[in-house]
Amino acid sequence: YKFIQSPMDFGPLNLLQTTYESSRDFGRIVFNTPAAVLRPQSKTDISLLLSSLSTSSLSRVTVSARGAGHSIHGQAQAVDGIVVEMESLPLEMEIHRREGENEISFMDVSSGALWIEVLKESLKFGMAPRSWTDYLHLTVGGTLSNAGISGQTFKFGPQISNVLQLEVVTGQGEFVTCSRTENSELFYSVLGGLGQFGIITKARIILQKAPEKVKWIRAFYDDFDTFTKDQELLVSMPDSVDYVEGFKVLNEQSLHSSSVGFPGNIGFVPDFGTKEKPKVYFCIEFAVHDYQLEHINVDEVVRDISRQMSYMQVQFYSVEVSYFDFLDRVSMEEISLRRKGLWDVHHPWLNMFVPKSGIVEFKELLMEYISPDDFMGLILIYPLLRDKWDGNMSAVLPEVGSTDRVMYVVGVLQSASPDTCNHLCLHNLLQHQRSFAQTACDRIGAKQYLGHQPSMLHWREHFSRKWDRFARRKSRFDPNYILGPGQGIFTNPQFASS
Ligand SMILES: Cc1cc2nc3c(=O)[nH]c(=O)nc-3n(C[C@H](O)[C@H](O)[C@H](O)COP(=O)(O)OP(=O)(O)OC[C@H]3O[C@@H](n4cnc5c(N)ncnc54)[C@H](O)[C@@H]3O)c2cc1C
């Protein structure tokens, strides 16, 4: 232990030896070993740890909360510090169902809970959260520290817009309950706050009535402008459409892998052109909830919507699935990738928010950056609406084109198996990605989501106008710069040179 002289420094806390898990994540790119691990049994354990660190000579020891460890670039790691494994907090889920017209139902849930657990529990009461991520084996605290987006975000905003209250242990070990009206500065800081201001121990999540079934539709396009026009049409119909996403079909592999979770028979046999002149396609995925109400014919709702769309002739596929299976669709892909040995590989993923005004240029830049014949993975593209995001929260959106209501998220979810991509290959891939992201940022005003910045200067640039507020909040809620070292945003100025 470099700075920790003795575990006795932490009184009754049981600090554990570091494990392989605590120094790795889904990205499999960064492996930072902490000095010790805390598996908290209560919020008091976390408070005790942070208050001991902030009041003693140990204040140079850093601490990272680790959710499910599904970050890409070591964001939940703490080199020579302490990793707090949030999944060991006792699971608490309490549903408060409200029947009144203006009343909101909600769930109080411990932050180490996985969203799949939240879904299972809330469905027992016929309820469910409104806003999701595509994959559900992520923790509540982990996604709320970023934003939490999926095909429902256009309608309800990201997951951070669907929280009523948080319980947080600040960097000084103080236990605080916060909301939009109580200790609001901490509430806004922590949501999208990249684990910099406090450790979330509990969240109060808005619930709505869950549908019985979902109509899940895929429609294909051979033209980008028509694809985005139809996506924008769909997000302008929140009364009938419940979910909108989309992806690029680059090659046979991307068509097949994206079809794993979709239970319909996709009969599309595209012509991908030649190596010199590749042809790519796009697929819109949307969904309509079916509450099995007598007066609503969901097939008719889907027909009405599809009549207004301009997809390729006959390339329209619709299936009906249970709400649970729809939300848990990525687990089918996980099973398939695990079977092929392609889950525990490097994931040099890049996610960017792109202003609507720059989406065509971004698409063209992207085609220079990736080559369709050897790209392994998925490229997601779908629209979000700015006014569903709260500017007081810490999440960063593009400033360019901020008068456009629509912006896009593009996820370049690439896999690189160590069998075919060695250390140097991965290094080159990451370099290439970095320069692509920088160009997209400089030329188009795109912003990274879930990204890693190579220096504090780059972080300043990333936050742009929001930087001063972010830094001020840091010095208020974590003045010893203990929390979230894996993000690489701050170092304690006192120890900067050592
Ligand atoms: C297969 C897959 C699919 C994904 N799909 C989506 C998607 O559709 N939409 C989306 O938005 N994201 C998606 N993500 C990204 C995901 O939201 C982030 O990686 C998120 O950080 C994962 O949560 P986690 O619980 O694994 O957090 P971790 O990776 O463990 O932590 C992430 C960050 O949050 C901090 N943190 C964790 N818990 C707490 C806490 N309780 N209090 C304070 N800080 C905390 C950590 O210190 C770290 O900085 C996906 C990731 C994967 C691997």
Automatic annotation (TrEMBL):
Enzyme Commission number: 1.5.99.12
InterPro entries per the UniProt record, alphabetical: Cytok_DH_C_sf, Cytokinin_DH_FAD/cytokin-bd, FAD-bd_PCMH, FAD-bd_PCMH-like_sf, FAD-bd_PCMH_sub1, FAD-bd_PCMH_sub2, FAD-linked_Oxase-like_C, FAD-linked_Oxidoreductases_BP
One GO BP annotation of this record: cytokinin metabolic process
Cofactor names: FAD
Pfam family of the protein (one): FAD_binding_4
PROSITE patterns given in the database record: FAD_PCMH
GO molecular function: cytokinin dehydrogenase activity; FAD binding
Domain of life: Eukaryota
Residue ranges annotated for the FAD-binding PCMH-type domain, each copy included: 30-210
Record bears the keyword Cell membrane: no
Keywords: FAD, Flavoprotein, Oxidoreductase, Signal
Subunit organization: Monomer.
Family to which this protein belongs: Belongs to the oxygen-dependent FAD-linked oxidoreductase family.
Protein's UniProt name: cytokinin dehydrogenase
